[in-house]
Amino acid sequence: MVRIDDSDPVVKCWLSPQEIDRLEQTAGDEGWEREIAIQLMGRCGLRVSEVSYPSTEELRWSKNGGIWLFEVQGKNTKGGGRKTRDAWMPETVADDIHKYTRERKLSESALWVDASTPSVRRWVKEATQAIADETGNDRWESVSSHDLRRSWATYHLVERQVDVRTMMAIGGWSDYSAIEPYLTEPTERRIGEAMRSN
To answer: Which keywords describe this protein according to UniProt (predicted)?
Structure first.
């Protein structure tokens, strides 16, 4: 079930990896481009404004890291112009991107998601509303595009305990104060794992 914090005027939501799977599939029912957009936010941590930047030209396999990386030009959390970073892409998403670009016969420079930021936000809202209608769980109605990035960051920082410097680099946060809000309380599963190992 979607975890929410509605103590502030802006409701914050955290989705589990399984909930992100469901959101991807639901968005994908309306087109593969929508599913890719959800993956870029929920699996790679992109901001909604960054989703329309990458193409296959920016995707590369790092032999040193043994991982997929792709260039993103995104928000500079210190202010000023856009900042370029290498974002991490899970192998499952890279596989989908390769299949998607082959099926669509996209050139190396063609955008994976050729849509405006408001369109991508609308796609998320349409998919979450569809899940809310299907399940009767109205928490889905509160989920926003930023909650996908929030869920990605919290999952890796809190659940997987990825170090903060790595997350800052791949997520585009310039300083600790920008990433600190994502260091929220762990899930019950994480608490149980931590306490059983002591």
So the answer is: DNA recombination
